[in-house]
Amino acid sequence: MKIRKNNVLRYSFLISNKVLYLHRIYDERKRGQLVPSFYNQNLMREKVTPLLNEALKEHTHLFLIDIEIASDNKITIIIDGDQGVRVEDCIAISRAIEHNLDREEEDFSLDVFSAGVSRPLSMPRQYKKNLGRNLQLRTTQGETLEGKITQTTDNEVTLEWKAREPKPVGKGKVTVHKKAVLPYTDIVEAKVMVTFN
After folding, report:
1. Long-range contacts of 84-88 (CB under 8 A, 24+ apart)
2. Of 11, 44, 66, 70, which is most buried with the most CB atoms under 10 A?
């Protein structure tokens, strides 16, 4: 099956009951050659990654959370910082990349965002940055824990919290202090609990 729509050719192949779509983009600037979209994405990634790494070296308090490059060359970069991310930080990273890419050669769009409070933590530096804050996390064993981050290392995080448990003898409950040391590899998702006082 071959469909032509807005200079995009789409081919589909039936492979073991699954449909594989190979998008091929017609690029007039390449003298009529057909270029697969994943090829364009890889080329763009090869151009952007060194520029991004250089910009992050200049701003050592910032670190990369995620980079996405869509087939239409929409580049989305998500960063975080040890003391948070300011608008000026996003602008600096954006300029370091944008000013070193040639729009005449390849059209693109670029967005640089901070990780934001609602985004799950994904790197040890993020846990360290949130030391002393409350965290809710889900483990690989299916447990959900809420507690204060009291310590972090490159491999694990320590949470502490208080819980009400039945008394060992007699009726009623007693407040107990709990502590869990969790390797980052055992954490499925972790989010900072935002409290408004």
Report:
1. 84/114, 84/129, 85/114, 85/115
2. 44
Based on the fold, state whether residues 72 and 99 are members of the same structural domain: yes
pTM above 0.85, yes or no: no
Close Cβ partners of 118 (under 8 Å, ≥ 6 residues apart) = 191
Pairing of strands 109-114, 74-81: parallel
Could you read off the pLDDT of 59-70 as tens digits, one per residue? Answer: 999 999 999 988
What is the amino acid identity at position 70? Answer: A
Where is 124: in which H helix or E strand?
A: helix 124-129
The residue segments making up the domain with residue 70 are 2-114
Q: Quick check: 178 and 163 in contact, CB under 8 A? A: yes
Task: Give the single-character DSSP code of 191.
Answer: E
